Amino acid sequence: MRIGVDIDGVVSDSYPFWLQELNRHFGKNVSVITDYQMHLDFDIPKEDINDYFVGNAERLLSMPEVVSGAKEGIETLLREGHEVIYVTARTPAEKDVTVRWLTMKGIPHEHVLFAGFSSKLELVKQWGIEVFLEDYQVNAKLIAEGGVPVLLLDASYNQEELPTGIIRCKNWDEILKGIQAIQSKKVPKIV
Question: Of 17, 35, 120, 125, whose CB has the highest number of CB atoms within 10 Å?
Fold first, then answer.
C-alpha cells in the first residue's frame, strides 16, 4: 500500500520540544498543548507565535526527538513492501532542515512532500495515497472525507470525537495493527 505519513507529531516528537521553547521564549508555564492552534493555549496573538516559528525554524525543526516507535514502525512498513510518502504541512523553504533531520535520525525517506499552507488532501490524491497517518484532526477529517482512511495518532490536542474513516491509535504499534486491518479489508479473500 501507499502510505502517507505526517511528520510533526507522528514521526518528529515536535510538540514537547515546542512547548518547552515557547514557554521559555514567552515567559509562560503552559503544561499541555490542548489546541493545535497553540497561540490559544499560550494566550498570545497568533502572529507572535508565527513570527517566533519563522525566526527559529531551523532550531524548532531540527532539535525534536523521534516519536517512540516511529523509526521502527516505518522500517517495518518498508520491509512489508509498503511505500511511505511523507506529507507535511511544513513549507518548501523548510525542506533542507526536514531532510537533514530525517537523515540524522536514520529515518528512511524517499518522498517528502511539503503542503505548506495548502491542503494535504490535494497531495494525497495526486500521489494515490491509500491510508494516511496524521495527528491534526482537521487534516484527518479532510483526508477521510476525501475517501482515504486515516490513523490518527493520539495527542492532547486532538481529543474531539472522531468521524467515520478515522481510527485513533495510541502509539505506533496500534498504527501498524491499523494498517494491517485496513490492508486485509482491501485484499479479496480466496476461498
Answer: 120
Q: What does the pLDDT average to over 80-90? A: 97
Domain 2-13+66-186 annotated CATH 3.40.50.1000: yes
The tens digit of pLDDT for each residue in 112-146 reads 999 998 889 999 999 999 999 999 999 999 999 99
Indicate the pTM of the whole model: 0.93
Q: Using an 8 Å Cβ cutoff, are 130 and 2 in contact?
A: yes
Start and end residues for every CATH 3.40.50.1000 domain found in the chain: 2-13+66-186
Catalytic residue among 6, 35, 154, 173: 6
- The C-alpha cell 485484499 sits at 187
Annotated active-site residue 8? The verdict is: yes
